[in-house]
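Marked as duplicate of an earlier ticket. Keeping the data here for the record.
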Amino acid sequence: MAFFPPNNALAWSHFHLRGGWTRSLTFTGATMAILAMLIITSARLNPNDGGRTLFGWTTGLLTLQAVCMTLYGSGRVSAAIRQDLQSRMIDSHRLMPLPPMHAVAGYIMGAAGQPIVFAVGVFLIGGLTAGAAGVDLSRWAFANAILLAFSAFVWVVCAYAAFGARLGGAMLFFPLAIPYMSQGGALTLWPGMTVLLSPVIGNSIFDLRTTGIVLPATYAIAFAAQAYFATILFIAASRKYRRAGEVGIDTLLGLCLLAGWVAVTCVGLREWEDFRPRGWSPVSVSETAQIVGSMVAGLLIALPAISANVLERLAWRRHEVLRDPAPLRRPIPIALVIAVAAGLLLLIPFAAPHQAELIKKSLVLRSGACVVMALLGIYFLFELLYRAGRRAGIAVFLWMLLAWGGPIAADLVRYRLGDMGESEFIAGFSTCSPVGALIVLWGGSVIDTTYGLLMQALILCLPGAPWLLGRLRQDSAAAALDNS
């Protein structure tokens, strides 16, 4: 197969640029020898407690596997693509008779080849310590298989992020680092992320006391979710490789990405006790907080679909104005995109076991209005900036910071400076924000959100008015060109 070396030229070249088999085997062999001496020495120094020492080494080697495969391996994949992008070598690679999917697979396999060889050596050493410590070898193999599947998922995500902005890798690892910095608290707020992080599900793979290799339903679902998201991002990375400036995640893939997030969130909410990580300090988060946190995360995940739709629509309009004879597919109407995104996000509360019976029609309608206005404001900003030939990242971030987070921050300041006997830290002013309104709606507060929704509509007019004027001018220019 052309996905793997030596049939894949990119995989073979990147593997040899880092020393090939000689360097990989030499480094792995030397590390195995050093680890073997350290393990034997530590076991000899504690002859009465050798089993516990070897068990500790087994857990430590599994941690070393995780660091090597996820952090070092993903860093190598990202660096390989970044290096070719900065040196413009990728333009030469695009001329090769190698399909884009095979090229992206070559980057992944070639860059991750050295970490894989090292991981095999650590796996062999760990198997010996696991057997000597009384750990079931099938359990050791099963933990490494879970880690390998998760690492492959992370490599694909890193390959896609490397084709994006310079800080794409940091933006990628930030969500992965949040659970560790918050001692698992973020995972309780976003059940969908827990489903994807298969190594920490339940007691985590680092608990080697259990036996057997039976695949629980939780891991099967996690593997399916990782494969789903990896497929989307692999296709997007292949598009970015094929042509500079290509839109990786188009409107359809963006909606599929959002649908996947809703699906894993619903599964995590429904079966939270099975997916809940137990290796960290216990953090209690209400079901309402999980719903709101997942819906807000869904709003952020919907942004690529909105951005791609704007780019596709601008390209299509340019095509129509220039009367380009080359066929160009008409983009999906933005109204349909926002409606589908809002409908998907409104499915999340129905998956909560203790919340579904309390859902009212007015609650769903008001939540839908918040989601639609939030996405519509982002759409207006994207089109205004892209139409002017500007980048939209910083402007959209500032808009979300002010329009989404500003009212909540103001309410928190009011609560701190006001009467300490007041119990509502989220009050009416927060409902001017889509996020604040969702918190009030699903939190069971008695605060009326009507005025907040009206204020959101007024705030929406800030980007909406210039967008409408620009659209009218554009239509007038198109009509004048047709008459001429």
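See parent ticket for discussion. The two ends are 56 Å apart (CA to CA).
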